[in-house]
Amino acid sequence: NSFCTLLRAAMDRPTVEMKRVAIECTPADAADVPAGDTSDELLRAYKPIPPNDILHRARELTRELFLTSSGNFGFTDDAPAEDLPGVRLTPEAPGTRLSQPAIERVKDHADHFHYWALYESRFPEEHSCVCAEEEALVALLSMLPYSRSPVVLAALQVLQALVANPNTARFLGRVPINVLVDVPTVQEVAENDGGEPALATLLGVPSLPASATSDDDAASRRRWARSDLCQLLFACARRFPNKADVQVLVIGIARHVAPQIIERYLTADLVSAVLAAMKTHKGIVEVQREAVLLFSETVNVPRADPQDAPVALLYVHVGEVVEYVLAAAQLMPTSSDVAHAAVTTLLAMAQRVENDDELAGTRALHVLAGIIDRHKNNVDLVSDALAAASSMTRWMDDTQRRGFCVTIRKVMMESTEPAVLAACCAVLHVTLQQYEREIVGLTAVAAAASDDASAAEAANAEAEARYEALQALRGFCAAQKLPQLMHIALEHFGEDSADLIETARLALSSLVLKRMPTAERLQREREMAQRAEAIAQGSAAAREAAAAVEHHADPEAGVAAAADDE
To answer: Pairing with 142, which of 105, 161, 276, 442 sits 20 to 30 Å away (CA)?
Structure first.
């Protein structure tokens, strides 16, 4: 027996090693090609992988996985093609389990696909990935429904390398996949409550009635499950909840595929699977990083139907995406890509007025202030964080607004980037303007409730309180030397940035003490604008209207208007 074992190793192993050496030592190998280079030298260095090698490996992998090979490589003829179009997978037969030697052989075949996918991912997108051809794809996807984690892990590693190419990711996400699964009965599902869910249940196949028993013919308990890649990823995440490496790969693949098939991503409920993985693996940096990147790359993707709720709205109102994103940003405070992903997600959420109440109860402002403080030298990140904070001024209270003015002061004292300084001035201007919008809204409410004296009085009192808060914030900004800091920024960097000049002008004008912005004042401003336009046009009728506006009947209003103008 020992002699036969050594002889088999001598006959089989060199072939595998020679293949791997040929891949690793090819002159056009990825190690010899600079990343991101699309020059003519790179195009000349590309040598396509022999299709016969792909075909041989796919068929060997198909044979190891016990797939039906009648018809064309891995497809089955049990269902009509016109009824179930797409890839059809037949997992292991009922009661059959892969032995350990078979698992090793499957992993070896998958390793070759992984090497080939990595090799082709370093070349321009014009070269289609041969590993995504139909026969190889069927063999790789057939590994996902298995219950052995090494097999699933090997398949996910290959798929992750494949979806790095956007064209391949788009194709993999849209192809329909039909899996032949064992369907449990209603009683079996109830008895298995809390255990590992059945694959048929995860793919949405209705359970068999209680009259069906385990003694029935195995063929009568098998059904075709219409699925796609997102649903198979969801099934993998739910079947291996404690395997962090499986969760990382599932989320990483979804990150490349979901932006191109957003509807299938949402329908497959992958969001709940990702949140469950983040909750189970709170301290695993890789899981948290991939999840935050997934949310940031899908939060701004438009829906197929404009009437559907935006993704940013679903992330806030369905599940606890905000809390998990904030926790991940605090878990990895020095990671710039995680911080940028968190800021992108928060910015998209804060721009939706419908999310104000939910965001107000989170620690989003605290996290943004920490990101700004730790990444002060990253211009793009700090600018985006300040933009996200400016979108949150709608629901900030007076204390939070003062605290963020202190953050702005600190950034302006330490930064020398005109873009960052302009963003600071813009946030300050938006914060002060928010008070004026609130006052004008309350004044309009008081004017509309003229018949109800108590309501009008309450609205006017609230408007006066908001005006006092505005004046207090202006005095606080002056005490923090913000006008002086803006003057210094203009003096040193104003010539290089038109945006800085404009935003500083707006912020300084907002800091000037003014009368309370009532509805009458806004009306007078509109009338004066019309008068200026009329004078510019030079028409006689317009001049008469301008004269009527100029000789206002109320002398006190005229004095107030003149004071406002000055």
So the answer is: 276
Could you tell me the two tokens for 345?
Answer: 């997600």
Q: Which amino acid, 268?
A: A
How many beta carbons lie within 10 A of that of residue 26, not counting itself?
Answer: 15
Reduced to 3 states, what is the DSSP secondary structure of residue 181? strand
Q: How far apart are the first and last CA of the chain?
A: 104
88 within 8 A of 180, measured Cβ to Cβ: yes
- Position 473 pLDDT exceeds 70: yes
What is the Cα 45 distance to its own chain's centre? Answer: 36
pLDDT at position 519 over 70: no
**Cβ atoms < 10 Å from Cβ of 480:** 17
Q: Determine the number of helices (DSSP H) and then strands (DSSP E) in the chain.
A: 28, 3
288-309: string of b/e by CB count within 10 Å (b at 16+)?
bbbbbbbbbbbbebeeeeeeee
Pairing relation of β-strands 177-182 and 222-227? antiparallel
Q: Give residue 470's identity as a one-letter amino acid code.
A: L
Round to whole Å and give the CA distance between 120 and 127.
8
Residue 178: phi and psi, rounded to 5, are -120, 120
Q: What is the per-residue pLDDT for 563? A: 47
Rounded Cα distance, 82 and 108, in Å: 35
Instruction: Check residue 303 and give left, alpha or beta (phi > 0: left; psi -120 to 50: alpha).
Output: beta
* Three-class secondary structure of residue 472 per DSSP: helix
The pTM for the full model equals 0.73
Both tokens of residue 5?
């074992």
